[in-house]
Amino acid sequence: MKWLTVAVKANFGWPTEEKEIEYLGCKYLLRPETDEDAQSVSLLCPKGIDMESGRLLVNRFLSALSWAEEEGISELFSVGSNGKKPMRVGKSKGRFIAQKFRADYLPEPKDDKSLRALALFREAQSLNSPAYAFLGFFKVLNILFDRGADQKSWINKNISAIKEYRASKRLEDLKKSQDNLGNYLYVQGRCAVAHDFNEPVVDPDIPAEVQRLSEDLPIVKELASIAIESELGIISKSTYHSTHLYELEGFERILGEHVVGCLKNGKLVKEDTQIDIPLLSLRLRDVEKFQSYEGLVPYGVQQHEKSLIILLHSKDTVLRLVIVLDFGKWRLIFDPIEHVNIADDGTPNPMLAKSDTALFVKGKYLNGQVEIYKTETNELLARTDPFIPVNIDLGGTADNMDKISAESLQEADARKAAMPNKANAADAKSGAAD
């Protein structure tokens, strides 16, 4: 079996084009829904793997993806194949799409307890039954605490951490009639669904009981999420974004714990410390590459308090720029206006760099996200949040940058056309001297 394909139903935006993702050493191909085909995930199977082991790998990936996207994803069915490409699978009825899909963050838990918690969380998010979804989220707590008394105690200690709107609103209503929310959720929710031999029980034919569990469901989902993050250490996507980990995490790997530790604490990095910065490429997310900003050569680093300033130049040295890695605030800083200098040597290159810079400025001002890649491996090292311009004429700025870019390209063409004439004139002058 070369491919294992699973038809899925995602409750979040699914890519509109085929998307390859590598996760824990395996390659997965996400395929979009079409008029004939369902959303699907295909695993390029490791050699010798069987169907059961392959499904486990796909399930681990789906659980991580579900956790990161904070929505459910259901398995419909799976098929194996040996062709060059995975099989297509039948069409589902609903559609969730994302034209610019990126799996920016996926957790990578190592222990069985954490892996099982994500599996239970995904299953619960994906169920259409409020009762069994409620029980599924509660089973996450059961992983951590085997006794009901401990589960109720943990709920009462952590319920104040709930911030989600629907859950908070429901809690306000419950507090009017319940003085022990942990006991209420355990007895009226978890036990009422799991057991049917004594009261209270949930009858799925009675709309009022299903409605009550539906209203309580956001609370137990939030509690499961809090438990996974606080007790198992698996950060959520919202935490990942709120702490801006993506802004400098790649440079943290390059610089190492010692250098980053010094910078975070404002301590001076010793002058003899070896800091090797690779060739870098600056880009804007979902925008075509700017050739002048590809393969930039680092030629110096400077420390300023908790920040590391990296000096870069283009291969022809015409374009020079700086990027600032602020480890104190954990932010990436790059201003294509203030941090860029272009030396005009009379060749076409400075004009090409000027054109690229104008388009870079335009793209950033249009809510662009600056990205820095390791050129040789195309590894994303850092990126910013979308830029929010303030107190500017956005339309006028964009038009002006387009004009500067166009005029710069015209000048580059003119200089290029003049170059052979200059060469001929130099040859003629040399011949006359002879």
What general outline do the C-alpha atoms trace? elongated
Quickly give the structural class: alpha+beta
Strand content: 15-25%
What is the averaged pLDDT score? 91
N to C succession of SSEs: EEEEEHEEHHHHHHHHEEEEEEHEEH
- Count helical runs: 11
Number of domains: 3
- Backbone CA Rg: 28 Å
Low-confidence stretches: 423-434
Number of strands: 15
Largest sheet: 5 strands, antiparallel
Helix share of residues? 40-55%
Main-sheet strand order equals: 3-4-5-1-6
Distance from N terminus to C terminus (CA atoms, Å) equals 76 Å
Could you please describe the fold and organization of this structure?
It is a single chain. The protein has 434 residues and is an alpha+beta fold. 45% of the residues lie in helices and 19% in strands. The chain contains eleven helices and 15 strands. The protein has helices spanning 51-69, 112-126, 130-144, 148-158, 165-174, 181-194, 207-232, 237-242, 245-264, 348-365, 394-433, and strands at residues 3-10, 14-15, 19-23, 26-31, 40-44, 73-81, 97-98, 280-284, 297-304, 307-313, 319-326, 331-333, 340-342, 370-374, 379-383. The longest helix has 40 residues, at 394-433. The protein is elongated.
Short summary:
About 45% of the residues lie in helices and about 20% in strands.
Could you give the topology of this structure?
Elements lengths: L2 E8 L3 E2 L3 E5 L2 E6 L8 E5 L6 H19 L3 E9 L15 E2 L13 H15 L3 H15 L3 H11 L6 H10 L6 H14 L12 H26 L4 H6 L2 H20 L15 E5 L12 E8 L2 E7 L5 E8 L4 E3 L6 E3 L5 H18 L4 E5 L4 E5 L10 H40 L1
Parallel strand pairs: 2-7
Antiparallel strand pairs: 1-5, 1-6, 3-4, 4-5, 8-14, 9-10, 10-11, 11-12, 11-13, 14-15
